UniProtKB/TrEMBL annotation:
Residues 557-576 are annotated as: Disordered. Keywords: Cell membrane, Membrane, Transmembrane, Transmembrane helix, Transport. GO terms for molecular function: amine transmembrane transporter activity; carnitine transmembrane transporter activity. Residues 94-273 form the ABC transmembrane type-1 domain. The lineage of its organism: Bacteria, Bacillati, Bacillota, Bacilli, Lactobacillales. InterPro entries: ABC_Gly_betaine_transp_sub-bd (IPR007210), MetI-like (IPR000515), MetI-like_sf (IPR035906). It comes from the Bacteria. It is found in: Cell membrane; Membrane. PROSITE patterns: ABC_TM1. The gene is opuABC. SUPFAM superfamilies: MetI-like, Periplasmic binding protein-like II. This is Glycine betaine ABC transporter permease/glycine betaine-binding protein.
Length: 576
């Protein structure tokens, strides 16, 4: 009996099989949804981006003035908050995030209210739907990213899908609760007067449940915003990517600024959605009905504005010179540096370049599936070997940008009296500070622990690239012992007096190349861009100089442009 209970039920395998079946047999349907969704998102985000920021700030501030009964507090907050976001260079990110919030909230409300009505009208439906909502609300939000990527790839569409699923339950639950709490006598009065079920719903139940419904809408909007940072892990653009990049690089100031941007947007959305229920607490006699003519006028004006903005968005979407190209990368300093430099060069040659930050496995999948055009951060033959073996036949290998000059290893300050991994005994509390759990560098560090008998009692503390460098800096400032799992090229070798430990067992792997991979067909679609990426090649000193400027506070774009300005001959070789 005990042996039977220890046999795992193949739940994970069954779910994988279901997802694989859906991906294979419904790929056309998912691609259609992805195309439609992306088009809608592009039009909306481009529409918002096409409006001059100062004009949009003034319009939102003016709207806040009238929405909040001509009181000055909220309009002043809106004005100062949006001006701060614009001043900090986060305006484009704000527009993407606002697009995600608007579309996700609209879909969640459009689905949630009818489902909530169904639950209120049918006890059987409530019995079925309620446990589903329980699962949706308690499931870790990261889990929603997995099927979203499998079905829709990367970008803002899967981010929207994950946000809708995560944020749907409050609207459903509170709509159901609000209708069920309507006084039974009022429902019976409607029935006795000959009202139909639809009339009872629209004239009695929904108006009286309005407070609960709008409370659910408010919570749904806030939950969508809470997914902003999480969705950035699958390439959803916006403020979340800034937060994620700051966390992974341990940039406290930058993370705080992007966090403030999210807070400002959250407060604005919260107050505006609450204002939709501004008649709560008033009796029916106190509520002034809107005349039919005014409704027609407002509806017509709104429709006209939407049409004009849609035209603006469509025109903005179609405007590019030589075409649009997407470069995928992981939020690691070496990949940020090389990808930003390549993007700047491509833009100077007339391309509209989008940089999309992803986890390493998703980066490979995005290029293999054609959702990204290229990546410049594949470490081969060892670090990313598993990813390349799985998807290599779907990728175009353009060769190394850094040829056999990359290296993983255990790094210590030069003042530590150890030169080889074999020399380690009880240093640094027998702990190696590593990076992300899923990184190739972490896998190499785990292999190293197994390869050396003297490391049998050692632990690998996984964290992030930013946390690893922070721990190194902190220990060196106090001349303490520290062992980190790092790699070259990295700015720490330009900033600190550190050294690689010799690795006679080869646990961390040997010399590697950083390779550029492109999607199949890029050479035919964009031969000039393909040639630039194919020619892209530089030295360790080049990439580390860009990385060091980034670490010292320059924006990646600024650091990349400085290098381009100082190395015109090398750039000329790429664009020939």
């Amino acid at each position: 009996m005990a042996d039977f209970l220890q046999q795992k039920i193949p739940i994970a395998q069954a779910i994988d099989a279901i997802v694989d079946w859906l991906t294979e047999h419904l790929s056309v349907f998912f691609n259609l949804l992805q195309t439609i969704g992306q088009s809608v998102m592009d039009v909306l985000s481009n529409t918002l981006a096409a409006i001059p920021p100062i004009l949009l700030i003034l319009l939102v501030t003016l709207a806040a003035y009238f929405v909040f009964n001509k009181k000055w507090q909220m309009p002043v907050f809106v004005l100062l908050g949006l001006v701060l976001i614009y001043n900090q260079g986060m305006w484009d990110d704000l527009m993407y995030t606002l697009t995600l919030v608007i579309v996700s909230s609209f879909i969640a409300i459009a689905v949630g209210v009818p489902v909530g009505i169904l639950m209120a009208k049918s006890d059987k439906a409530q019995v079925v739907i309620k446990p589903i909502l329980d699962v949706m609300q308690t499931m870790p939000s990261f889990v929603y990213l997995i099927p979203a990527v499998a079905f829709f790839g990367i970008g803002i569409v899967p981010g929207t899908v994950a946000s809708v699923i995560f944020a749907l339950p409050p609207t459903v639950r509170l709509t159901n609760l609000g209708i069920r709490q309507v006084d039974t006598e009022l429902k019976e009065a409607s029935d006795s007067l000959g009202g139909t079920a639809m009339q009872k719903l629209s004239k009695v139940e929904l108006p009286l449940a309005k407070g609960n419904i709008f409370a659910g809408i408010n919570q749904t909007t806030m939950m969508v915003l809470s997914m902003v940072v999480i969705a950035s892990m699958i390439g959803t653009p916006g403020l979340g990517q800034g937060v994620l990049a700051a966390v992974q690089r341990s940039q406290i100031g930058s993370g705080f600024i992007y966090g403030i941007g999210v807070v400002i947007l959250a407060i604005m959305m919260d107050r505006f959605t609450q204002s939709l229920n501004k008649n709560r607490g008033k009796s029916q006699n106190e509520i002034k009905p809107v005349s039919k003519k005014r409704k027609v006028f407002i509806g017509g004006l709104t429709a006209a504005v939407l049409v004009v903005l849609a035209i603006i968005g469509g025109v903005s979407q179609g405007s590019s010179n030589k075409g649009a190209i997407t470069l995928a990368y992981a939020e690691q300093d070496d990949q940020v540096a090389s990808t930003t430099v390549a993007a700047q060069v491509l833009e100077e040659e007339g391309y509209n370049v989008t940089m999309t930050a992803l986890d390493i496995p998703v980066t490979f999948e995005a290029v293999a599936n054609g959702q990204a055009d290229a990546m410049l951060g594949a470490w081969l033959p060892t670090t990313h070997e598993a990813n390349y073996e799985q998807l290599g036949d779907q990728l175009d290998n353009l060769g190394p940008s850094l040829d056999k000059q990359a290296q993983n290893g255990l790094v210590v300050p030069s003042y530590m009296d150890v030169d080889s991994i074999e020399d380690l005994t009880d240093e640094a509390d027998q702990t190696i500070t590593g990076v992300e759990p899923g990184a190739g560098n972490t896998a190499a560090a785990k292999a190293t622990l197994e390869a050396y008998p003297n490391l049998a009692d050692w632990d690998l503390a996984t964290s992030s690239a930013g946390a690893m460098t922070t721990q190194l800096e902190r220990a060196m400032s106090q001349e303490e012992e520290v062992v980190v799992s790092a790699w070259s090229p990295h700015w720490i070798f330009s900033r600190y007096d550190v050294k690689f430990l010799e690795d006679p067992e080869g646990g961390m792997g040997g010399a590697e190349s950083i390779v550029t991979l492109a999607r199949l067909g890029l050479e035919d679609d964009m031969p000039e861009a393909y040639q630039i990426l194919d020619n892209f090649e530089w030295e360790v000193e080049d990439i580390e100089s860009v990385m060091l400027e980034m670490e010292e506070g320059d924006a990646p774009e600024e650091a990349a442009q400085h290098w381009i300005d100082n190395n015109p001959e090398k750039v000329e070789e790429w664009v020939e």
